[in-house]
C-alpha cells in the first residue's frame, strides 16, 4: 500500500489519525501540512494539530496566524488547524486539578501542589492531555498530528503508561503525586489507556516517520521505531525527504557527488526498512511554505505520479 | 566578519566552555568536533563532550569514545567523552535517592522513586552530568556538542522544590531529620553556580548552529530568547550548509536555492547581528573523519 493510501480513510482502514515523527529539521511539518492540504482537497474534513513546544510552526508554514484555538485555514475548504500552547494548556490543567481541592485542603497543601503543577513535568503532561481531546474528536474525518522532534515525541507518548504506572503505584501511598491527588487522577489514567489503545490501533491510526537520506537520521529512525514498538506502536510508512533530483546535478560534479551519496543512503534505507512503505520526496527549488507549494508538494509525495518513486520500482 | 578568537580561547589561566545549541540535523556535532580540533591544535588542552546516543564523536575522530574521558590519539591535547543519557539517568536517580533511603520509610521512598521515574527527569540528569564538566578545571577549553534548552534549565530547581515540599509536609508525616533533604536543597546552589558560569561571557561561549531557511531561523530566534531569560547570552552563530555560489552557476535548480539562501542570510544578519556570524559552506561529501574536520575547522576559524 503506497504512503498516499496510508493517510486516506478507506473502507478497509478507516484511518482517523496520522502522526508524523522524526528528528527536527527533516521536513515533518512540510509532510504533515501537505498531507493535510491533500486530504482537505479530496473532501475530507481535516484538522492539523501541532504539539511542538517550539511554537508557531503551523502559522509559519501556512503563512497565516493559527494559534491555540481550532481555526479554519484560509484558502482551503475542509481544513482546520491548531497549535497547542503547552504553557497555556498547563495553566488550564492546573486549574482543573486544583479547583475541587480549594477550600477543602489547607492553604499550604494547595500551595505545594500549585508549585508542583507548575513544573515542566506537568507542562508536558498538560500538552498531552490536550492532545487526547483531539485524538478523540469526532467532528473530523482525519486528524493530522505534526508531532514534536523524536525524543520529545516519544516521551510524550510514553507519558500515559509512565504516569498510569505511577498513579497505580502511589495511589495507595500518601495520596499525593507530583501532578495532583491520586483520586483526581484515576479518571485520567482511564483516559490515557484509551488514548494508548487508539495509538496502537493500525486500522485507525497511521504512524509515519520522516527522515533524510543521511547517516544520523537513519540511525535515529531505527531507534525511534524500536522505542515505538516497545509501546506497541507500529510504524506504517517512511517519507525520505530532500532527495536531490538527478537532473538538477547534471554537469556539476560537486552536486553529483552529493546525489550519489544520497543514493547510497537510499539503498541502505530500502534494505534496512524492508517491508515498510517508503515514499521519496524531492528537494524542491523553493521552500515548502504557503498553500500553493504545499499542494504541489502533496501531489508529488502523495499521488501516484511521484517521478522518483516510479523510477525506483 | 573577522573571527574573534577570544570566543574560543580562554583568558590567560582561565577556562573556556563552548556550548553548541541548535535543532537536530543542523550540524552541531560537526561544528563542535571541528572547534575542539582547532583549539587543541592551537595548544589548548581541550575536552569535547557529546550526549548523542548515536556516538557521533567516535565517527568524527575515527576511534572509540565512551563514557570515560579518553585522549584522541591522532590529536595531541584533545580528549573526548560520550555521555549515555539512559545510564546517566539511572545514576542520577540513585544519587538523589540514596540519602533519602537511609532515613525514610518505604512509603515515602516509593513516592520519590515514582516521581524520579517521570520521563522528564532524564533531561535534568544529563544537565546534572554537564555541570560536572562545566566545573571541571582540568582543561583549558571544554566543548559541549549540545546545550541545555530553556526548557531544561527550567527543570533544574525541581529537587529544591521537593525539599520545600517535604519541609511543608514533614510535620504531617512525622519526619524530623532534615539532613538528607538539605542535600537536595544544596543541589540548587550547584545549578545556580553552573548557570552563573554559563551567563559569564568571559568563561562561556554560547553558540547556535542553524541553516539559512525560514523555520530554523524562527526556531533559533525563540531558543535564543528562551536561554536569554536565564541570563545566557548567545555570542556566536554558525550558519551551516551555505551553498557555494560558483557550484550553483551551472544549475538553474541550485541557483534558485542559492538565491533563496542569500535572502535568508540577510535576514539572519539582521536578526542576530549582536553576535559573531560565521558561514560554513556545504561540502561535497559528508563530514566524517579527521581530514574533513580539519577542513571545516580551517574554513570556520582560519589556520
Question: What labels would you give this structure?
Answer:
heterodimer; A: 313 residues; alpha/beta; eight-stranded mixed beta sheet; 12 helices; B: 303 residues; Rossmann fold; 52% helix
Describe the structure.
The complex is a heterodimer of chains A (313) and B (303). Chain A has helices spanning 3-7, 28-41, 57-62, 86-98, 107-117, 120-135, 150-170, 182-199, 215-230, 253-272, 291-302, 307-312, and strands at 17-21, 46-50, 71-72, 79-83, 142-146, 176-177, 180-181, 205-211, 237-243, 277-282. Chain A has 313 residues and is of the alpha/beta class. In chain A, the strands form two sheets. Chain A has an eight-stranded mixed sheet with strand order 3-4-2-5-1-8-9-10, sandwiched between helices. In chain A, strands 6-7 form a two-stranded antiparallel ribbon. In chain A, β3 and β4 form a beta hairpin. Mean pLDDT of chain A is 78; it is low at 149-154 and 170-182. Chain B is α/β, with parallel strands linked by helices. Chain B has a domain at 14-87 and 127-152 and 192-242 and 277-301: 3-Layer(aba) Sandwich (Rossmann fold), CATH 3.40.50.300. Chain B is built from twelve helices and eight strands. Chain B has helices at residues 28-41, 56-61, 85-103, 106-116, 121-134, 150-155, 158-173, 179-199, 214-228, 245-248, 252-271, 290-301, and strands at residues 16-21, 46-50, 70-71, 78-82, 141-144, 204-210, 234-242, 276-281. An eight-stranded mixed sheet of chain B has the order 3-4-2-5-1-6-7-8, with helices on both faces. Chain B is globular and about 75 Å long. In chain B, 41% of the residues are buried. The model of chain B is unreliable at 171-178 (pLDDT under 50). At the A-B interface, α3, α5, α6, α7 and β6 of A face α4, α6, α7, α9 and α11 of B.
Amino acid at each position: 500500500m503506497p504512503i498516499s493510501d496510508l493517510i486516506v480513510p478507506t473502507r478497509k482502514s478507516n484511518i482517523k489519525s496520522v502522526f508524523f515523527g522524526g528528528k527536527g529539521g527533516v521536513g515533518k511539518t512540510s509532510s504533515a501540512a501537505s498531507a493535510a492540504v491533500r486530504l482537505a482537497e479530496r473532501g475530507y474534513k481535516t484538522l492539523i494539530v501541532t504539539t511542538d513546544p517550539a511554537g508557531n510552526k503551523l502559522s509559519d508554514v501556512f503563512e497565516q496566524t493559527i494559534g491555540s484555538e481550532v481555526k479554519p485555514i484560509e484558502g482551503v475548504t475542509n481544513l482546520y488547524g491548531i497549535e497547542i500552547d503547552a504553557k497555556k494548556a498547563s495553566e488550564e490543567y492546573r486549574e482543573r486539578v486544583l479547583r475541587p481541592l480549594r477550600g477543602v485542603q489547607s492553604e499550604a497543601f494547595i500551595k505545594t501542589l500549585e508549585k508542583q503543577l507548575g513544573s515542566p513535568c506537568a507542562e508536558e503532561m498538560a500538552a498531552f492531555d490536550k492532545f487526547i481531546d483531539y485524538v478523540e474528536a469526532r467532528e473530523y474525518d482525519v486528524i493530522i498530528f505534526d508531532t514534536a522532534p523524536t525524543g520529545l515525541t516519544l516521551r510524550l507518548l510514553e507519558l500515559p503508561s509512565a504516569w498510569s504506572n505511577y498513579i497505580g503505584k502511589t495511589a495507595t501511598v500518601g495520596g499525593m503525586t507530583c501532578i495532583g491527588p491520586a483520586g483526581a487522577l484515576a479518571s485520567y489514567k482511564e483516559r490515557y489507556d484509551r488514548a494508548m489503545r487508539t495509538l496502537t490501533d493500525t486500522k485507525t491510526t497511521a504512524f509515519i516517520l520522516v527522515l533524510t537520506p543521511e547517516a544520523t537520521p537513519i540511525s535515529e529512525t531505527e531507534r525511534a521505531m524500536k522505542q515505538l514498538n516497545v509501546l506497541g506502536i507500529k510504524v506504517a510508512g517512511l517519507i525520505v525527504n530532500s532527495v536531490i533530483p538527478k537532473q538538477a546535478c547534471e554537469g556539476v560534479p560537486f552536486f553529483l557527488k552529493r546525489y550519489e551519496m544520497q543514493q547510497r543512503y537510499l539503498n541502505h534505507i530500502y534494505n534496512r526498512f524492508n517491508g515498510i512503505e517508503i515514499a521519496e520526496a524531492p528537494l524542491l527549488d523553493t521552500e515548502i511554505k504557503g498553500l500553493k507549494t504545499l499542494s504541489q508538494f502533496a501531489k508529488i509525495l502523495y499521488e501516484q505520479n511521484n517521478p522518483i518513486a516510479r523510477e525506483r520500482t | 566578519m573577522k573571527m574573534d578568537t577570544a570566543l574560543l580561547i580562554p583568558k590567560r589561566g582561565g577556562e573556556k566552555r563552548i556550548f553548541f545549541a541548535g535543532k537536530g540535523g543542523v550540524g552541531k556535532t560537526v561544528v563542535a568536533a571541528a572547534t575542539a580540533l582547532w583549539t587543541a591544535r592551537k595548544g589548548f588542552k581541550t575536552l569535547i563532550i557529546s550526549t548523542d546516543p548515536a556516538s557521533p564523536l567516535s565517527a568524527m575522530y575515527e576511534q572509540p569514545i565512551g563514557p570515560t574521558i579518553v585522549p584522541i590519539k591522532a590529536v595531541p591535547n584533545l580528549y573526548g567523552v560520550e555521555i549515555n543519557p539512559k545510564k546517566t539517568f539511572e545514576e542520577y536517580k540513585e544519587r538523589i535517592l540514596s540519602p533519602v533511603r537511609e532515613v525514610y520509610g518505604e512509603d515515602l521512598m516509593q513516592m520519590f522513586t515514582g516521581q524520579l521515574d517521570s520521563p522528564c527527569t532524564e533531561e535534568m540528569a544529563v544537565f546534572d552530568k554537564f555541570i560536572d564538566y562545566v566545573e571541571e578545571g582540568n582543561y583549558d577549553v571544554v566543548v559541549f556538542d549540545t546545550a541545555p534548552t530553556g526548557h531544561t534549565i527550567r527543570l533544574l530547581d525541581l529537587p529544591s522544590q521537593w525539599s520545600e515540599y517535604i519541609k511543608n509536609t514533614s510535620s504531617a508525616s512525622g519526619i524530623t531529620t532534615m539532613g538528607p533533604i538539605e542535600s537536595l536543597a544544596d543541589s540548587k546552589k550547584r545549578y545556580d553556580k553552573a548557570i552563573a558560569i554559563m551567563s559569564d561571557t568571559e568563561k562561556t561561549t554560547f553558540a547556535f548552529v542553524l541553516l539559512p531557511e525560514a523555520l530554523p531561523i524562527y526556531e533559533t530566534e525563540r531558543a535564543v530568547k528562551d536561554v536569554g531569560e536565564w541570563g545566557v547570552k548567545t555570542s556566536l552563530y554558525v550558519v551551516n550548509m551555505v551553498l557555494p555560489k560558483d557550484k550553483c552557476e551551472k544549475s538553474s535548480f541550485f541557483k534558485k536555492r542559492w538565491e533563496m539562501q542569500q535572502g535568508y542570510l540577510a535576514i539572519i544578519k539582521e536578526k542576530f547581528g549582536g553576535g559573531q556570524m560565521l558561514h560554513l559552506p556545504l561540502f561535497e561529501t559528508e563530514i566524517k573523519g579527521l581530514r574533513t574536520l580539519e577542513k571545516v575547522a580551517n574554513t570556520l576559524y582560519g589556520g
